[in-house]
Design brief:
heterodimer; A: mainly alpha; MetI-like fold; B: 353 residues; alpha+beta; Rossmann fold; OB fold (Dihydrolipoamide Acetyltransferase, E2P); 8 helices; globular
């Protein structure tokens, strides 16, 4: 019912989503914290850049990434002395693309959650001798769990469903860069509607189940939303 | 052992110019209207707000601009109780307390003492969001004590509570003030809390410290706004001498004088603070003959000033203590009271403070 190529596309998709989400949490959480608490000129510029993937056509983002990550791009030029050759058409390239593409989905809920906590509990923790990093991990992170879980889920689901960016920078190499959404596209192109149905239905069910689970769990988590 | 500070701070159009000296074994009350800068001063003491100036505890500098020294809040040994308690909502009561003990290394003995002092035994397992306002404040106070502070700062801890919760928590605060040796700074705009808890008073107005001194002195200084409040009062310290079981009266000693008040639960020899409102003290030049007033005290007029229209305030010395009396302008003209005159103060009622 599901052949080897479809199966490896599914594995690749979830691998990509898991790695991207992990990177997004590590990079996005401090970024969200900074945006929630820092006051500086040009903050709106940073916020607009983070939010760009929400409105930009994925092909535009994909095009610029292709140029940047490609064989003649600046990244390849930087990596050349170390034997690198750019990331276009590689799994690493997909990870970079996914991280940028899904960044706002992780950062914005986390930023909102951090802003909602405000300074007050953190000041209280400071008077109880908690150093800044201590306060971040023992007060801010636990109280923002809801926002972080929402962000991680949206980032994961959004990466699983990404199409345009992957197509532009990843091409369509089975087992290497071919993800589920592209496999579906290929099946439709080849008029294999039955197989497209199976993959599409599976993705639909998975996405629904994931979101349902998160919204159900979120009711029980702290975060005062 | 004391906390000393001097701050200058500009926040938009608000300017803070404050000096503070808070001795050990005493509650120093920062008293003033809302918005006069009391809380800002407290936050500057804690280092949560950055003012220019100096601040030191027991000779250890927390802030010294001249030496470019600023100790961040988490390295100052202080406890701060906020008006809004600021419990950690994701933790239980015990979790909130443990947050403090983990970092201060307070032991089981201290834990038990503080839990007992604030009556938290039955609350420990409750989640923070399920507590009432009064319970939250008790947990917040316990949490700051378990940080093993060397000075305790309280920022209007009762202001957001209803009357019943206030009444319930005040005894805990009174126990605290008698049992703790460290300096305490207590911010409030309530005269009741000032009189029940204060030893030293720093009066604040529009961002600056107006005057400072002992509670008894500050209450009775006629040049300060405290004596001109509607509920202007003096505080006198008395000693319990005994009681009259049949008449339900306690007999208190004020110097060589005796006071009779409705029976109080105290043992003989104990010192009590009594609050005597200015409006409850009337004056007569001749010793009253037969009167229903229980306490008539020989006194000497120290000073008289005009109060609100038609009213006069008189500062009196009774033994070695001070009383205030508010009389009508008419009475003042009738009696021609002047400094140095001997009078009799008829005290209609007193309250424990």
């Amino acid at each position: 019912m599901i052949d080897q190529a479809d199966f490896s596309a599914a594995v690749l998709t979830f691998e990509l989503a898991a790695i991207s989400t992990a990177i997004l949490l590590v990079l996005g959480t401090p970024l969200a914290w900074w945006l929630a608490h820092a006051r500086f000129r040009g903050k709106a510029v940073v916020e607009a850049i983070v939010g760009l993937p929400l409105v930009l056509p994925p092909t535009v983002l994909g095009f610029y990434l292709l140029v940047a990550l490609g064989r003649n791009g600046p990244i390849a030029w930087l990596l050349e002395p170390f034997g690198g050759a750019g990331f276009a058409f590689t799994f690493q390239g997909l990870v970079i693309g996914s991280v940028i593409y899904s960044l706002p989905f992780v950062v914005q809920p986390a930023q909102d959650a951090f802003a909602l906590i405000g300074h007050r509990p953190l000041q209280a923790a400071a008077t109880l001798r908690a150093a800044p990093l201590d306060r971040f991990f023992t007060i801010a992170i636990p109280q923002a769990t809801r926002g972080l879980v929402t962000g991680a889920t949206l980032g994961f689901a959004h990466t699983v469903g990404e199409f345009g960016v992957v197509l532009m920078i990843g091409g369509n190499i089975p087992g290497e860069t071919q993800v589920l959404s592209i496999a579906i596209y290929n099946h439709v192109e080849a008029l294999e509607y039955g197989r497209a149905h199976i993959l599409s239905g599976a993705l639909l069910l998975f996405s629904f189940a994931l979101l349902f689970l998160v919204y159900a769990i979120n009711r029980r988590l702290p975060g005062r939303l | 052992m004391s906390l000393e500070a001097c701050f200058h701070h500009t926040q938009g159009s608000f300017v803070l110019n404050a000096e503070l000296h808070a001795p050990a074994r005493a509650v120093t009350v920062l008293f003033g209207h809302s918005g006069c800068g009391k809380s800002t001063l407290l936050h500057c003491l804690a280092g949560l707000e950055r003012a220019t100036g100096e601040c030191r505890l027991n000779g250890t500098w927390w802030q010294h601009d001249g030496r470019k020294l600023f100790v961040p809040p988490h390295k100052r040994r202080l406890g701060l109780v906020f008006q809004d308690a600021r419990l950690f909502e994701h933790l239980s009561v015990a979790g909130n307390l443990r947050y403090a003990t983990r970092r201060s290394r307070a032991g089981a003995a201290e834990w038990n003492a503080v839990v007992e002092l604030l009556g938290l035994g039955s609350l420990l397992r409750r989640a923070a969001p399920t507590l009432s306002g009064g319970e939250r404040q008790r947990v917040a106070i316990a949490r700051s004590l378990l940080a093993r502070p060397e000075v305790l700062l309280l920022d209007e801890p009762l202001a957001s509570l209803d009357a019943a919760s206030k009444a319930a928590i005040l005894p805990y605060l009174e126990r605290l003030t008698t049992e703790l040796a460290m300096p305490m700074v207590y911010v409030t705009h309530s005269a009741d809390e000032l009189i029940r808890l204060g030893d030293q008073v720093i009066l604040m107005e529009a961002g600056r410290t107006l005057a400072a001194g002992s509670l008894e002195t500050m209450l009775s200084r006629l040049d300060l706004p405290l004596a001109h409040r509607e509920d202007a009062s003096a505080v006198v310290v008395v000693q319990v001498q005994g009681w009259d079981e049949a008449l339900h009266l306690s007999i208190l000693r004020l110097g060589m004088l005796e006071l009779r008040v409705p029976q109080v639960r105290s043992r003989a020899g104990q010192r009590l603070r009594l609050r005597v409102q200015a409006r409850d003290v009337s004056l007569t030049l001749d010793p009253p003959g037969r009167t229903s007033i229980l306490n008539v005290l020989p006194a000497q007029v120290l000073e008289t000033v005009a109060d609100s229209p038609g009213q006069h305030l008189v500062r009196l010395q009774v033994e070695d203590q001070i009383l205030l009396s508010r009389i009508s302008e008419f009475s003042q003209r009738h009696l021609c009271l002047q400094a140095g005159m001997a009078v009799f103060a008829q005290v209609k009622s007193v309250a424990l403070a």
